[in-house]
Amino acid sequence: MMTLEEKQQDVIEEFSLFEDWMEKYEHLIELGKDLPLIDPEKKTEDRLIQGCQSQVWLESGISDGKMQFTADSDAIITKGIISLLIRVLNQESPESVAKADLHFIREIGLHDHLSPTRSNGLLSMIKRMKMEALRQI
Amino acid sequence: MLETEVKGKRKLELEEIRRDFPLLGREVHGRPLVYFDNGATTQKPKRVIDTIERYYSLENANIHRGVHYLSQQATTAYEEARKKVANFIGAASDREIIFTKGTTDSINLVAFSFGESLKEGDEILISHLEHHSNIVPWQMLCERKGCVLKVIPMNDRGELIQEEFEKLLSTRTKLLALSHVSNSLGIVNPVREMIRKARDYGARVLIDGAQSVQHTTIDVVDLDCDFYVFSGHKIYGPTGVGVLYGKESVLDAMTPYQGGGDMIKTVRFEKTTYNELPFKFEAGTPNIVGGIGLGAALDYLSEFDMHEIEAHEASVSAYLGACLKEIDGVRIYGESEQKLGVQSFLVEGIHPFDLGTILDQQGVAVRTGHHCTQPIMDFYQIPGTVRASFAMYNKKEEVDVFMNALERAVKMLK
Ligand SMILES: Cc1ncc(COP(=O)(O)O)c(C=O)c1O
Fold it and tell me: What pLDDT, on the 0 to 100 scale, is given for residue A38?
């Protein structure tokens, strides 16, 4: 099992392989396609994250003291981004999710390359994941 | 390109005029910028930028209140700008030109001041194509006054259904508030005929010209509308300034909705009397540099023949439309022949946000989303569209760059 920090390093390394931003986006799109879907009947208003240009639904639960997130979006790039968040935060204790410093976002350049509306979306996703973890504490 | 040259007008030499707009020379994400988001805001010619710089460097003073040289000079410049606006849209007098913050502010002014005269049961007619800023102020008015909001429906092609419009008109209709050109679809509404029909029932008419004044010749007297509103920033001028044109007799009958300095004649605690037009609707220190900057933008635009600009933009837009139709799975929204300035579309199976993101990475600026027209998106049951919108400086070569970028994006996202 990797620690949260090791998972972040893993993502950073993965993205360092790409020469330019188009390749990074191609990778994000692939990741988005691999993210499991959420059942349509679970795409309810209370699972919808506000503040994104595309729609994002997030489901969370806890098993054996570890957070389990699933998410879906109607936009594939958004799905790619959220799949990275899930990869880093899944299987972590609610406490470590709540206090996680997700520096990988900055380091792979997602922060710079997402426009304000979109990075608000990204921030809303992170905030929501942390809120759901806090509810489990 | 049109061959008919209009005397004394500058020809639309694209490479030359592009140099008038400093921002067009920049790169985005390492690529030369293709700016197709002119419906949101246009870039500014050097003439406007220089005017603003000169104003703050050499001419800044408050207006309408100083005896000193600078104040008088600033007042003259601001009032000159008002005359330029009046000329540009064919108003009978500059008393009919109220400077506001923008289209939204102009509509709110009418909704409050004109709206004050409305009674319970009076009807306000808008259309399905309106921008939120030509919907919400009327909903708020209806809440305050007990008026009823009616909506002219649209068909699948994005056109307003004229038979339904006629059925909705009655003597209860007090105001028709209608966009000239839809910002989402580019559809040009047959405003002239619609104004005439509304007149038959004694209704006043407000035309939202936010997406028409920069693309086509406007003559408010000829249109015979009571109000015509637009934003400075969409017609090559600065942000934070806009225009409310109103017929003098109509404006005269309206009470101001904001009080303060400048809009008064005399203030006594017992009774205050209001200033005359247009000042009675301009409370407080206005956006002086904004007005003057807008004047400079209209000066710039007036160097050219508006018909040539319209024909040029139409040819760029039609070229993009034709190229889009060549691509598998593309649907263009707004299929009427009567379109100005905008191509709105989706590619089957691809979210507009994804397309916009990959276009942006290639230096192409478009808008994605609902464009402040959620009812249109609900009508088509789509999350939004990708919107390319044009200005006088866009060229067909940019459409080619756009199409390459789009094809690459589609390949990545399919
Ligand atoms: C048709 C239409 N009406 C109103 C507006 C609102 O203009 P502003 O935001 O400048 O007040 C816009 C601009 O987006 C528009 O396109």
Answer: 83
Catalytic, A109? Answer no
The number of the ligand 1 atom at minimal distance from the alpha carbon of B183 is 16
Tens digits of per-residue pLDDT, B187-245? Answer: 999 999 999 999 999 999 999 999 999 999 999 999 999 999 999 999 999 999 999 99
The shortest C-alpha distance from B354 to chain A (Å) reads: 6
Which of A22, A26, A75 comes nearest B353 by C-beta? A75
Instruction: Determine whether the interchain pair B368/A53 forms a contact, defined as Cβ–Cβ distance below 8 Å.
Output: yes
Q: What is the CA radius of gyration of chain B?
A: 22
Cα(A86) to centroid(ligand 1), Å: 39
**Residue type, position A17, single letter:** L
Q: Are residues B228 and B156 in the same domain?
A: yes
Pocket-forming residues, ligand 1, beta carbon under 6 Å: B 102-104, 131, 133-134, 179, 183, 208, 210-211, 231, 372
The nearest alpha carbon in chain A to B369 belongs to A53
pTM, whole model, 2 decimals?
A: 0.94
What confidence score (pLDDT) does residue B92 get? Answer: 96
For B241, the domain range is 50-301
pLDDT at B235: 98
Span from the CA of A23 to the centroid of ligand 1 (angstroms): 36
Of B29, B354, B408, the CB nearest to A75: B354
**At how many degrees (to 10) do helices B288-302 and B46-54 cross?**
150
Question: What does the angle CA B140 – CA B146 – CA B147 come to, to the nearest 5 degrees?
Answer: 80
Q: Is residue B202 part of a domain?
A: yes
Q: At what angle do helices A76-89 and B352-361 cross, to 10 degrees?
A: 90
3 state DSSP class of A29? helix
- Nearest by CB to residue A22, choosing from B354, B361, B384, is B361
Residues of A with CB under 8 A from a CB of B: 21-22, 25-26, 29, 53-55, 74-78, 113, 115, 118
Judge if B163 and B39 occupy the same domain.
Answer: no
Select from B346, B351, B349, B313 the least CA-distant residue to B332.
B346
Q: Is residue B308 within 8 Å of residue B148, measured between CB atoms? A: no
Dihedral Cα A49, A51, A54, A57, nearest 10 deg:
0
Closest CA to B76 of B295, B223, B366, B228: B295
CATH number, domain containing residue B331 = 3.90.1150.10
Please tell me the predicted confidence (pLDDT) of residue B356. Answer: 94
CB B207, CB B225: distance < 8 Å: yes
CATH code of the domain containing A85: 3.90.1010.10
